[in-house]
Amino acid sequence: MIAAAVAAMSVSAGCGIIGGGSPTDNALDELSVSSPRFRDQAPLPAEFTCTGQSGNPPLRWSGVPPKQTKSIALVVDANNAQGAAAVHWVLFNIDPHTTELGQDSVPKGASQAQTSTGKPGYAPPCAQDAVYRFSVYALNAELSLKNDADLRATLDQIAQHTVARGRLSAAHIE
């Protein structure tokens, strides 16, 4: 499991779990990502962690390029001060017209890939000193993967199809 997380993090190029170029090798459009429950670089409220009861926090995004976007993906990952990396959630094939994610919910029709734990679904973060990144990707295709897809394969496909991306980061846990 840890090997899968390390392999997944190797895809990173300093821009979250998925870095690098776009499918067209042009600069990526930027999405705006926010939450009504915390601000960028503020602490993640404890209710959305392993000590809480609320599941995932609500998120909102805008700036999706309408002509290019065929689906949306969300990756929640973290790096802690010791350099350890983890993927806490991967959602993909979200309808491209969707602009928000409700608290403790999965949009209708969306699929979930495995996390660093080897299981799909939101794996609430626990590390107090980590930076948690909620990255939203606009993709130029629906991914041909099933629910419970392999983490590495899913991250690779997201990277190959990204046309725009944005991020909301939580500095640590409240």
TrEMBL record:
Pfam families: PBP. SUPFAM superfamilies: PEBP-like. Residues 101-122 are annotated as: Disordered. Belongs to the UPF0098 family. This is YbhB/YbcL family Raf kinase inhibitor-like protein. It comes from Sphaerisporangium melleum.
